[in-house]
């Protein structure tokens, strides 16, 4: 199923056709690159390699004016196919390998792409599409546009539609919360203690793997603000916004603890800004926001 917006279609087709190469390229690149990304995280060889591959492919798409990623300091101004960037067009924000620390233990990982109709950093409600690839037992992609949310199986560079109009199941089943429990705030801990009594723990250390559980079975995923780091760990532009967009398009909610992630005004001076991230069934997110508000 193609996407009606031709630029989005080009990005998604390019991503689908790059995935086999990315997956194969993980082999032999499981070590540290002895370098840090702008968030101060140690980069794996695969982080840098996947980022370079996607930067090269996505920045040369007509209509893409910017490429930014979690792994690079500066935003790449892309020629509009003819080497001159007119500045308008869509911007892509990429987490080339989400959960790359799972590479060492050979667990699920992902790639996240947000397509903004705005200059970066941008608000989540300026997204026109967002997708994630899940490198699981099989490789799948979930794509959200203003029209719908679809799931594809990726094989041989092609994408095969397996689910259209993906929506969060009514009844939640799973939850997954990041950060160390002693580092949770009291308010979040009391919410987590309630959730733990009601649902099954599914937390694999790669946001995309955990998100796909929530999207498949219903529930809630969170990486809260921590006592040691109130802004949390996940990045607004590369993780919070695209995943928030996908889950909201699938009928759920997103939040930073107080409001939809998509309404958060970005820090114009820090494209790598972090944010607490909560996504899932709307009743569970509403409850979190109410409990955090009561505690204030
Ligand atoms: P990335 O590998 O892109 O830096 O993302 C890792 C993130 C996210 O995937 C996951 O939810 C979280 O880090 C896991 O953090 P902890 O190791 O603190 O649980
Ligand atoms: Mn990282
Ligand atoms: Mn990530
Ligand atoms: Mn990453």
UniProtKB/TrEMBL annotation:
<comment type="subunit">
    <text>Homotetramer.</text>
</comment>
<feature type="binding site">
    <location>
        <begin position="98"/>
        <end position="101"/>
    </location>
    <ligand>
        <name>substrate</name>
    </ligand>
</feature>
<dbReference type="GO" id="GO:0042132">
    <property type="term" value="F:fructose 1,6-bisphosphate 1-phosphatase activity"/>
</dbReference>
<dbReference type="Pfam" id="PF18913">
    <property type="entry name" value="FBPase_C"/>
</dbReference>
<dbReference type="GO" id="GO:0000287">
    <property type="term" value="F:magnesium ion binding"/>
</dbReference>
<feature type="binding site">
    <location>
        <position position="203"/>
    </location>
    <ligand>
        <name>substrate</name>
    </ligand>
</feature>
<feature type="binding site">
    <location>
        <position position="98"/>
    </location>
    <ligand>
        <name>Mg(2+) 2</name>
    </ligand>
</feature>
<dbReference type="GO" id="GO:0005986">
    <property type="term" value="P:sucrose biosynthetic process"/>
</dbReference>
<feature type="domain" description="Fructose-1-6-bisphosphatase class 1 C-terminal">
    <location>
        <begin position="169"/>
        <end position="290"/>
    </location>
</feature>
<dbReference type="GO" id="GO:0006094">
    <property type="term" value="P:gluconeogenesis"/>
</dbReference>
<dbReference type="GO" id="GO:0030388">
    <property type="term" value="P:fructose 1,6-bisphosphate metabolic process"/>
</dbReference>
<dbReference type="InterPro" id="IPR028343">
    <property type="entry name" value="FBPtase"/>
</dbReference>
<keyword id="KW-0460">Magnesium</keyword>
<feature type="binding site">
    <location>
        <position position="95"/>
    </location>
    <ligand>
        <name>Mg(2+) 1</name>
    </ligand>
</feature>
<keyword id="KW-0119">Carbohydrate metabolism</keyword>
<dbReference type="InterPro" id="IPR000146">
    <property type="entry name" value="FBPase_class-1"/>
</dbReference>
<dbReference type="InterPro" id="IPR033391">
    <property type="entry name" value="FBPase_N"/>
</dbReference>
<dbReference type="GO" id="GO:0006002">
    <property type="term" value="P:fructose 6-phosphate metabolic process"/>
</dbReference>
<feature type="binding site">
    <location>
        <position position="239"/>
    </location>
    <ligand>
        <name>Mg(2+) 2</name>
    </ligand>
</feature>
<dbReference type="Pfam" id="PF00316">
    <property type="entry name" value="FBPase"/>
</dbReference>
<comment type="pathway">
    <text>Carbohydrate biosynthesis.</text>
</comment>
<feature type="binding site">
    <location>
        <position position="233"/>
    </location>
    <ligand>
        <name>substrate</name>
    </ligand>
</feature>
<comment type="similarity">
    <text>Belongs to the FBPase class 1 family.</text>
</comment>
<feature type="binding site">
    <location>
        <position position="97"/>
    </location>
    <ligand>
        <name>Mg(2+) 1</name>
    </ligand>
</feature>
<protein>
    <recommendedName>
        <fullName>Fructose-1,6-bisphosphatase class 1</fullName>
        <ecNumber>3.1.3.11</ecNumber>
    </recommendedName>
</protein>
<dbReference type="InterPro" id="IPR044015">
    <property type="entry name" value="FBPase_C_dom"/>
</dbReference>
<feature type="domain" description="Fructose-1-6-bisphosphatase class I N-terminal">
    <location>
        <begin position="22"/>
        <end position="154"/>
    </location>
</feature>
<keyword id="KW-0479">Metal-binding</keyword>
<keyword id="KW-0963">Cytoplasm</keyword>
<feature type="binding site">
    <location>
        <position position="70"/>
    </location>
    <ligand>
        <name>Mg(2+) 1</name>
    </ligand>
</feature>
<feature type="binding site">
    <location>
        <position position="95"/>
    </location>
    <ligand>
        <name>Mg(2+) 2</name>
    </ligand>
</feature>
<dbReference type="GO" id="GO:0005737">
    <property type="term" value="C:cytoplasm"/>
</dbReference>
<dbReference type="GO" id="GO:0006000">
    <property type="term" value="P:fructose metabolic process"/>
</dbReference>
<keyword id="KW-0378">Hydrolase</keyword>
